[in-house]
Design goal:
Blueprint lengths: L1 E5 L3 H13 L3 E5 L2 H8 L6 E5 L7 H10 L6 E5 L4 H9 L4 E4 L4 H15 L7 E3 L2 E4 L4 E4 L2 E3 L3 H12 L7 H8 L10 H13 L5 E3 L3 E3 L5
Parallel strand pairs: 1-2, 1-3, 3-4, 4-5
Antiparallel strand pairs: 6-7, 7-8, 8-9, 10-11
The protein binds calcium ion.
The site of calcium ion (CA) has 5 residues, from loops.
Amino acid sequence: MRILLVEDDPQLGQGMRAALEQVGYTVDWLTDGLDARNALTTAPFDLMVLDLGLPSLSGISLLKEIREEGNKIPVLILSAHDTTADRVSGLDCGADDYMIKPFDLEEFYARIRALLRRRMDRASPAISYGSIILDPAARTVTLNGKPVFLPSKEFSILFLLLENAGRVMSREQIEEKLYSWNDAVESNATEVHIHHIRKKLGKELIVTVRGVGYMVPKTA
Ligand code: CA
């Protein structure tokens, strides 16, 4: 899951990026409204965390513009303003949720999970697939009720493929969700991760579609 974080306060931005990366999200952090608007057209972000007071283009203006263009990306506003009018105008401009600074980190994580879940039209927080259960909140995977440890990237790939069960994901699509602009990607990294997932959860779980990509079949 790739998150665009737009926050011009260096300390807060750095802290939030670290906090989000720690729980397994891929994060691109920008400090400027116009840069953020450009970024949205160049990478497949799953969610945007948006500060309101920003240089060159305010959070509200950015939000209005992208919604007018039909961009449906989930947006969580972070604001130092704490009046009902601010919250109402943020939500009315197309935000999906709103948090007031300073905020509790656990609540921040939970709201992000809820927005991502809704975006995929998923009712329950955990994903069940055959004898596999993946819990995004705890970042755990079980097979037949027994815990299976997946390091961060393997977990993210499995999560992505399970959420998109029945759809083929190309290596590029997977890597765009797994790596930010600052990350260096080794050329065979995805193959290696998938090899490890198959070893742990069964080789038939992830199908290789030659020349196209990878897929978890629709029904287990
Ligand atoms: Ca600000």
